[in-house]
Amino acid sequence: xxxxxxxxxxxxxxxxTATGCTSEEKFEDLGQKLASPIDVATxxxxxxxxxLNADFDRTYNAGSVLVMDEDGTKITAVPTPRLGRTxxxxxxxxxxxxxxxxxxxxxxxxxxxxxxxATPKLIKRFEELICNPVNIAAVKDYKxxxxxxxxxxxxxxxFPDSVDAPETASIKKIRRFDVIRRALYIDPKRELLMGxxxxxxxxxxxxxxYTDDYTYKDDGxxxxxxxxxxxxxxxxxxxxxxxxxxxxxxxxVYDIKNERDNAVATxxxxxxxxxxxxxxxxxxxxxxxxxxRFIYYxxxxxxxxxxxxxxxxxxxYRTNFHTALADPDDPNAFYLSHRGIANExxxxxxxxxxRVSIIGxxxxxxxxxxxxxxxxxxxxxxxFKGNTNEFKFPGDIEIATISGQKILLVNNFRDLVNWKxxxxxxxxxxxxxxxxxxxxxxxNNSSPQTSWYQIAANERGKxxxxxxxxNAAMLLEIIPGVxxxxxxxxx
Length: 491
Prior knowledge:
CATH architecture: 7 Propeller
Oligomer: single chain
Distance between the termini: 56 Å
Strand content: 35-45%
Strand order of the largest sheet: 3-4-5-6
Helix content: under 10%
């Protein structure tokens, strides 16, 4: 007598019973609950908070964008796919990126009309993303947006001509870097996109001092002229050919206008095999090579002394940036949250927020990139010695003008995946950028229930962060010069 073999397969939505029949799994309705919330944003005027539910553990088999007013009252929940990853608001548009759930479901990007901010309306869905989105950069009233992926790919998008013409929106893959660039900054004044290296798992990339005395040619000859490339990365042919060793210390500068207008500027004809508008260039392309620049700086502590003393032509090359944020008051400046292991074996002068000023022409000339120190200057504004500790690990940052003061908010997040339980650290910091005389921080929380991640704020002193592990949101009140307090935990 033959034996019957009973196989039970569990998939995303179906299971096979012992009789061979299929039955749909039953899931609880997500409704207005929180389920693995992973990002938070405010409406254009700050009247509403948007919380992106990822439902990572598939309790509900659905995600949502939960809408709350500034007092934390739940208004509505807009159904979405699971595994939401990133969200941003730019004027009347909200962009949300979703990771792929399985082989049968592609990663997605959704565009919502938030003209009526309490009731977001889905108007466009892109399902051609071939990678999981990590971050989205967009600016109010600017035509283009950018998406970066876990594979290192970068997509350039174009907003609809209006909320009533969603078919005019588009998105296109433009680059594939071999490192993740999470910190994205769009400069609408110059029409540039900038991206900085991120490291999400154990921090084995570290800031490093290198010497740059020479420029080496392909034949091995050299001239005594610094070129931003560390000598030990180009002194031999094998090193010059191995560009991958450079990229942890490089950012990119993408010329949106030039790449958008390329077909007109060069007389290029668009064919089935060639797309001249936002072309997808290889890393070895001369244009792409000129986009990749080294980032280095040696900033000062609170008392004005530089962190370290460098010899001539030594440079302190930096890596691992989490967030880039425009300065709301200065079109020539932006902020970076910079992470690292704060000890002598890692990056002891990291874990801070840097203000970056544009002081020169960032665009390449004849595919030759400018020297970084000629076009950018750097200043530490948060994380000074004596005001930080080895557990601080800045991630998301936000700036809001509250009661006439420019307030910087910093989310410290050392997660439970990549750190030992004794080393995790979750907190929200607030400080005045105008005077450096006021600083406040929530209590360090090492519990999964209070693992605050991401931060959004409005000009009335209301802020919100979310706990991915704790299925909750935290409503904060900020009174500059007085207090940073938790008003409400929302579940």
